[in-house]
Amino acid sequence: MEQRFVIVGGLADDHDRGNLIAALEARTVSAGLKLSWDWIKSSAREGWRPPLKYLNQLSASVDRDQKEGRQPPKLVLLRRLNKESRARVLTIDPDPVLVEPDKFSGPDLVEWLFSAEAGLTPQSEWVAETRLAAFICILAKLLRKKSWNKDKH
Fold it and tell me: In this predicted structure, what is the pLDDT of residue 13?
């Protein structure tokens, strides 16, 4: 199942929406993940207010997903957003992912969204304590040597 992410807010460098979505989708494909991205952009020209039409569509989409038992999109909240819009987003999702204050341009945001710090995407590496790693290795070796685990024709 594809996980949806919706970024809400603006960036300091007024990055182009299409370019950011294309960069996120390219990074998603290269990582072999099933993610979809959208960005409800706000800009300084509009007082950091995203278009109300898109917030209404997001709210309706989340309600519809919850009624149908699907996973609603995970919201990523940028810091450049006015108070009313921020309050509206928090009513849609009370626990969005908060991006650190004003340190991101478009490319930095893409890198951060795929980092372990953001915690949005599964990491290909895993870390375990020495004893747990040793236990898993032994268990894997035992499973490989079992007769029921071998292909016999």
Answer: 82
pLDDT tens digits for 90-112? 999 999 999 987 567 888 899 88
Query: Stretch 22-51: mean pLDDT, rounded?
Result: 91
Give the whole-angstrom CA distance, residue 73 versus residue 93. 9
Q: Which two tokens stand for residue 9?
A: 């807010």
Residue 48: the pLDDT is: 92
Q: Which of 21, 109, 92 is nearest to 52 (CA)?
A: 92
Select the more confidently predicted residue: 152 or 40. Answer: 40
Please report where in the chains the tokens 């016999």 appear, as a residue. Answer: 152
Q: Whole-prediction pTM value?
A: 0.76
Using only C-alpha atoms, what is the Rg of the chain? 20
Classify residue 71 by burial, with Cβ atoms within 10 Å: 0-12, 13-18, 19+: exposed
